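Renewal narrative, Specific Aim 1. Our central claim is that a sequence can be written position by position from structural information alone. The example that follows is taken directly from our test logs and has not been curated for this report. It begins with the structure tokens describing the chain, in the order in which they were read.
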């Protein structure tokens, strides 16, 4: 959500990473694949391997970032001085792959005996790209292209230990 607010404000983005998989929840309200950002901070891994999101306030003034949740929405607003920039955001180009990766079976010792249940549905590999162009008051233009490569996945079947090897993925 912060990524989209930053894009719409025309602020330069210096550190950004896409989600590993295409998440349809981010494609509501007219958005498509590609307009999402992921952060990943893993305990025990060095900060140099963490995913982050960073942008620059190049407005020459202060900014106020306001964020709240109005279920099921998360809203982010960025306020600042008007420096007469104009922002253009392209539609995303989307390329869907062909075929799904293999299904997998996950043995879960916490499941009751005799359990075989589908816990994830397949996702096709997808690439998406869009451009943000900012025209400043002096006529200069800054363009940034954002490219997302989403991995696909097959069905995931969770099974109790006694059902190992009996799911459709086996």
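The sequence written for that structure reads:
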């Amino acid at each position: 959500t912060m990524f989209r607010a930053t894009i719409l404000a025309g602020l330069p983005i210096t550190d950004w990473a896409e989600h590993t998989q295409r998440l349809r929840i981010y494609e509501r309200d007219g958005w498509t694949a590609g307009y999402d950002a992921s952060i990943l901070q893993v305990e025990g891994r060095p900060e140099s391997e963490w995913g982050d999101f960073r942008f620059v306030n190049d407005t020459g003034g202060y900014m106020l970032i306001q964020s709240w949740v109005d279920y099921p929405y998360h809203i982010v607003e960025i306020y600042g001085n008007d420096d007469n920039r104009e922002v253009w955001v392209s539609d995303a180009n989307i390329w869907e792959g062909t075929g799904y990766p293999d299904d997998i079976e996950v043995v879960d010792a916490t499941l009751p005996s005799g359990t075989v249940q589908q816990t994830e549905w397949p996702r096709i590999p997808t690439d998406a790209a869009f451009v943000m162009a900012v025209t400043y008051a002096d006529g200069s233009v800054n363009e940034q292209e954002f490219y997302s490569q989403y991995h696909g996945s097959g069905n995931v079947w969770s099974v109790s230990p006694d059902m190992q090897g009996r799911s459709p993925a086996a």
